[in-house]
Design goal:
Oligomer: single chain
Number of helices: 2
Distance between the termini: 86 Å
Strand content: 25-35%
Helix content: 25-40%
Structural class: alpha+beta
Order of helices and strands: HEHEEEEEEEEEE
Strand order of the largest sheet: 1-8-9-6-11-3
Shape: elongated
Length: 207
């Protein structure tokens, strides 16, 4: 026997079910949308400038000048191993090591890559490697021309800071507290510029 009241109750029940489903879907979409928005609006690492004493700046220029001259004469190589002192400190204080360590070497290779910024038409990708663990990572990348943008590529990097030596944008700086730069985990850095660029040297530099 047909009962109009029971049929109406079922219809009302299923209407509420559909409404609840729609509300749940909207809330889920809103939550995911907020997560995507937070990822896209993640603050960029700070750009820093480091001012060096004239004596130390002159020392850096002497270190880089042979590589810059070699690149100008067309004798540069894509695979480059640093020579000379491998670590600079802005405060000129060098603590004595408490125990002997392996001789640290920092090497790099580089290649030209497409740039995704029309205003910076040139980009070079440098792969930085070391024979020992370095943490925190704090590097100076000496280039042949002024660098306009620095993009590091190392998974899960934290406390990242990038910048330049004041008045010398060809001396790019990069540091992070985690993860360590290790023999099995090289650091990839993309350097964008308005002119064709070459990485001349990569050295540890604390700032």
């Amino acid at each position: 026997m047909y009962h109009p009241a029971a049929a109406e109750s079922k219809r009302i029940f299923w209407c509420f079910v559909r409404i609840a489903f729609v509300i749940s879907a909207v809330l889920l979409w809103s939550d995911e949308h907020d997560k995507v928005t937070q990822l896209l609006s993640k603050p960029q690492p700070p750009i820093v400038q480091v001012t060096l004493p004239p004596q130390l700046l002159g020392l850096l220029e002497k270190q880089v000048q042979p590589q810059r001259k070699s690149q100008t004469e067309g004798n540069g190589s894509g695979n480059t191993k640093n020579t000379g002192p491998n670590t600079f400190r802005a405060n000129k204080t060098t603590p004595a090591p408490s125990a002997p360590f392996p001789i640290e070497t920092v090497t790099f290779t580089q290649k030209s890559v497409p740039s995704d910024k029309p205003e910076y038409a040139y980009a070079v990708e440098a792969v930085v490697q070391t024979n020992t663990n370095i943490q925190p990572v704090s590097l100076m990348l000496s280039c042949s021309v002024e660098v306009e943008e620095i993009t590091p590529r190392l998974p899960m990097m934290t406390e990242v800071a990038m910048g330049y030596i004041t008045g010398h944008k060809e001396l790019a700086l990069l540091k992070s507290s985690f993860p360590a730069l290790s023999p099995d985990k090289p650091l990839i850095v993309v350097l964008k510029s308005k002119q064709e660029n070459k990485v001349l040297a990569v050295k540890r530099f604390e700032f």
